[in-house]
Amino acid sequence: KMILMSKFAPHRVIASLPEATVFMGVPTLYVRMLAEAGLTREACRYMRLFIAGSAPLLIEIFKAWQEITGHTILERYGMSETVMLTSNPYHATDGERRGGTVGFPLPGVGLRVSDDKGQPCPTGEIGGIEVKGPNVFRGYWRMPEKTQEEFTADGWFKTGDVGKVDERGYVTIVGRSKDLIITGGYNVYPAEIEGYLNDMPGVAESAVIGVPHPDFGEGVVAVVVARPGASPEPAALIAALKGQIANFKVPKHCFVVDALPRNTMGKVQKNLLREQHKGLFGG
Question: What local confidence, expressed as pLDDT, does residue 249 receive?
Answer without folding.
Answer: 97
